[in-house]
Write a structure and sequence with these properties.
157 residues; alpha+beta; Nuclear Transport Factor 2, Chain: A; six-stranded mixed sheet; 3 helices
Length: 157
């Protein structure tokens, strides 16, 4: 693949990933990851200080599936919808066929009463690999700038 084809494939992965979440098709969410994988949602402050306390931590596709199961059957939360905006996707480096990619994101949350608010803002710092020609997240760090998460964080970002 040419560098432009690689970038286009990675951008398509990012857009399909957020559309999956926005469309509430969470059962397909783990399919965006390789196995093994790492998914963390962590504050910018903790990430910048190399503190290891994330809000969400999953280190396998099995844990991602468990997360979806908990979302569907165990967690109690106010129903809501997400809408993601992703921008400024850049491939920072490629080492041993692992692409390090950074993107900015903003998540808007709409509740059933129609009230929409900015829910979470930050950046994705991803490691992307190609499996059988298809890009997958080997590692997805969601590094949020938002100082306060206003509700229970149950839906992936």
């Amino acid at each position: 693949m040419t560098p432009l084809e690689v970038k286009a494939a990675i951008e398509e992965l990012l857009h399909a990933y957020v559309q999956c979440i926005d469309d509430n098709k969470l059962e397909a969410w783990p399919d965006f990851f390789s196995d093994p994988c790492l998914y963390k949602i962590i504050s910018r402050e903790n990430h910048d200080r190399d503190l290891t306390a994330p809000v969400i931590y999953c280190d396998s596709k099995g844990m991602l599936h468990d997360r979806v199961g908990a979302h569907r059957h165990a967690n109690v939360y106010e129903p809501h919808f997400y809408r993601h905006l992703v921008s400024n996707t850049r491939i920072l480096k490629c080492e041993q066929e692992v692409y390090t990619v950074q993107s900015n994101y903003a998540v808007f949350q709409t509740k059933l009463d129609g009230d929409t608010q900015i829910y979470n803002v930050g950046r994705y710092l991803d490691k992307v690999v190609f499996e059988h020609g298809a890009p997958k997240f080997k590692e997805k760090l969601v590094i949020f700038d938002t100082l306060r998460i206003p509700t229970l964080l149950v839906t992936p970002i």
